[in-house]
Amino acid sequence: MNVSNLKEGQTIKNYKELCEILDIKISAGDSKKAQLKELERYCNYIKDGNKYIIQEVYNEAKEQLGIGLYKEDIELLILDLLARNKESNYFVSLTIKNLLRALEMVNNNFIEVYNYNTPKKQFDKLNEIIKVDNAIIGDVFYLVKDKTKRNIVSALKDLADKSLILWELRIKVCRTEIELELNSSGNIKLDEQGNAIIKDYNEIYDYATQEEKNIILKTEKEVMESMNIKKKTYFNINKDARMIFIKEVNRKLKQEGIKFYYYTYDITYNKDDVLKELNRVELAEVRNRLNKNVLEQVLKTIEYLSNKTKDKYKTVFGELPPEATDTERIRYNKNYTKDGNKTAKAIVDRKTKVRI
User: Fold this and answer.
1) Using CA of residue 82, residue 88, residue 92, residue 97, what is the dihedral sign?
2) 3-state SS, residue 196
3) Could you tell me which of 263, 176, 167, 247 has the C-alpha nearest to residue 213?
């Protein structure tokens, strides 16, 4: 595939012209789909009728993470989830953790690790069982999290493209509200120093107001500037920095009455249309296949990342140079592939015997 002729903003009138530019043969069916999936590694494009509009050309090919290889299975299981929703026939609000659990793309060990609220100790319980360094466990955990999240978002976009759902990512907060103690007359009770006596702290979960969104945005920016970090994606490759960022942002937000914040996928749908599209016959098989495919793709990615790092520093003997990132140091470890595979199986495979 020759992508050297692609340019940002370029409009290609049809698939035949695209093949001519890329110097590939005109195909149909699964072969054509495979060609277009391969193209996604080199650029970001959108379809407009028969046209292909190139949005961005990447400096280097993206690693093959399997996005789209099992998108159809994810779509089917999302539709099944909507069809089984007993609370509403047209709306559901789910976190990424809820979706991962419901679709069974990962196992309960992953959810247990996800639930742990103390970043520093997040991987300790799994470490005790599988005897893998926390740094490798963390690297693989976030690899799985990011990978599955991208596949779910891709499936949601495709379902929206079919007019089966509307969806949006929304921010929610956990507010801390103070309940003051009142006397028999209904007035606020005061202690000996004249301060109001606190009866209880109540936690309220709700969509963020515009004011709260502004506070969150301002706080994130302040903390990032204090850490001299330009983009939040940096935290994907530097786990220590991510812990510092989360801790400091939450500390500042608590002063504003926000205990923490999180994101939900709000999905609007019509149950009648969902049921028409849904074929429940093979759902058990679909769940097994999806989980197996997620694991296989994660194992391939672990090997790819290990080889990529070792190739980059193949002339280095002993310690890596100072410019090597923390993530590269983890993936340069001679045990990264073996221990990474052990970790992936422990947090993804539904049939694993490892239990946290």
Assistant:
1) negative
2) strand
3) 263
C-alpha–C-alpha distance, residues 163 and 269, integer Å: 9
- Check: CB of residue 216 under 8 Å from CB of residue 253: yes
Backbone dihedral angles phi then psi of residue 266, each to the nearest 5 degrees:
-90, 120
Q: Where are the beta strands (DSSP E) in the chain?
A: 11-12, 43-48, 51-57, 91-94, 165-180, 198-207, 258-269
Look at the chain and count its residues.
Answer: 356
Of 21-25, 285-289, 298-302, 312-316, minimum mean pLDDT range: 312-316
Q: Per-residue confidence at 65, pLDDT binned at 50, 70, 90?
A: very low
The residues pairing with 54 across neighbouring beta strands, listed in sequence order, are 45
Contacts for 243 with CB less than 8 Å, ≥ 6 apart: 119, 120
Residue 206 and residue 190: Cα distance in Å, rounded? 31
Count the helices and strands in the chain (H runs, E runs). Answer: 13, 7
Q: How far apart are CA 82 and CA 281, in angstroms?
A: 16
Q: Are 81 and 102 in contact (CB under 8 A)?
A: yes
Please state the φ and ψ torsions of residue 208, each to the nearest 5 degrees: -65, 135
Q: Work out the angle between the directed axes of helices 71-83 and 134-161 (0-180°, nearest 10).
A: 70
In the predicted model, what is the mean pLDDT of the chain?
88
DSSP classification of residue 236 = G
Give residue 163's region: left, alpha or beta (phi > 0; psi -120 to 50).
left
Residue with tokens 């639930």: 115
In 214-277 the beta strands, taken as DSSP E runs, fall at 258-269
Bridge partners of 182? 188
Return the ∠ at Cα 148 (arms to 39 and 290), rounded to 5°. 90
pLDDT, tens digit, for every residue of 206-257?
999 999 999 999 999 999 999 999 888 788 667 778 889 999 999 999 989 8
Distance between CA atoms of residues 286 and 307, nearest Å: 31
Tokens of 17: 């012209």
Lay out the sheet containing 11-12: strands in order across.
11-12, 51-57, 43-48
Amino acid found at 124: D
Question: In a 3-state reduction of DSSP, which class is residue 187?
Answer: coil
